[in-house]
Each structure stands twice: as structure tokens, then as C-alpha cells.
Amino acid sequence: MSIGKVILGAALLAGMTTSALAADRARATLSCKALPSPEFAYDCTVDLANARTGAPLEGATIILGADMPSMPMVHNVPPFEFKPGDKPGRYQTHIQLDMYGPWAIKLRIAGPLRAEVVAVYQFGPEGSEARKRGGAGGKSEPQPAAKPGQLRH
Q: Is 133 helix (H, G, I), strand (E, B) or coil?
């Protein structure tokens, strides 16, 4: 067997492994319920799964960042880290916002799969609801974050 065939075989095997891993993405579903006190405090849950297989993802690190699209960088909301919850793939944290209204939520996910998910949620006295992209009302799935160098409007 020639060295060229060995290198070609290794390259094909590496390419198959890379493409199989690239097909796996994380799917994150966020829900937040208002806490009775203090005002603008929420108990948030993320259900994290492999988007292709639906299998819950354990052992992830999830950081939530929040900013108001109508007032970028005006609010100084610190990042919040999720902790493992009561079942596989579930993570929980408490967050404190500055006011009711639409908030751009960024979830940075590291661990078995890496992802960054950005979506706008309407926060109010009862909790949160995902907002439809480009319009008012309705629910939508969180959209993946822009790639480096790509702008989102």
C-alpha cells in the first residue's frame, strides 16, 4: 500500500468525522416566569437538546446575556450562568432585568456542543414570550447568532 493511499484514506475518514459532527447542533428552548419579588426578576429554564437527535445535552455551560434592542448598551445587565436543573438537558437560573419590554437574549453554550443563540423575548409581569422576527406578536424559534463579520438587523 502506498503512502498516498494511506494519506487519502485518512483524509476521507477525517472529513466524514468532521461532517458528522458538523451536522449536530444544539437546540435551546428558553422560558422565564416572573418572580414575586424583586420587580423584574425571573426564574428562567433552558431545555437543551441535540437538534438532530433530540437527545438532551448534559454537561453544558450556558451563559445568558441581555440587552434591549431599542436602547443598546444602556442597561448594565450582568451575564447569568445556568446550573443543571431537575432533569437531563434542563438548566436553570434567576435573572434580574431593569424593566419590562423586549430584550435581546443571547445564550452562549459550551460543552458537548457549542452554539450561540440570539432571540428577542418580551418580558412582562407574568414572564417571557419569544417575539416573531420582523414583526409584532406571535412566537418564533430563537435564531442562530450572526457569524463573525456578519451583521444582523
A: coil
Q: What angle do CA 63, 65, 67 make, to 5 degrees?
A: 175
Burial (CB < 10 A; 0-12, 13-18, 19+), residue 127, is middle
> In this predicted structure, what is the pLDDT of residue 151?
42
Could you give the CA distance from residue 104 to residue 40 in angstroms, rounded to a whole number?
Answer: 15
Q: Which residues contact 28 (CB under 8 A, 6 or more apart)?
A: 46, 47, 48, 62, 107, 109, 115, 117, 142
Residues 56 and 86: beta-carbon distance below 8 Å: no
Query: What percentage of the chain carries pLDDT values higher than 90?
Result: 60
Residue at grid coordinates 437527535: 53
First to last CA, the chain: 55
Q: CA 24 to CA 52: how far, in whole Å?
A: 6
What tens digit of pLDDT does each residue of 14-62 get?
444 444 545 688 999 999 999 999 999 999 999 999 999 999 999 999 9
Distance between CA atoms of 83 and 94, rounded to whole angstroms?
Answer: 10
Q: What is the pTM of this model?
A: 0.71
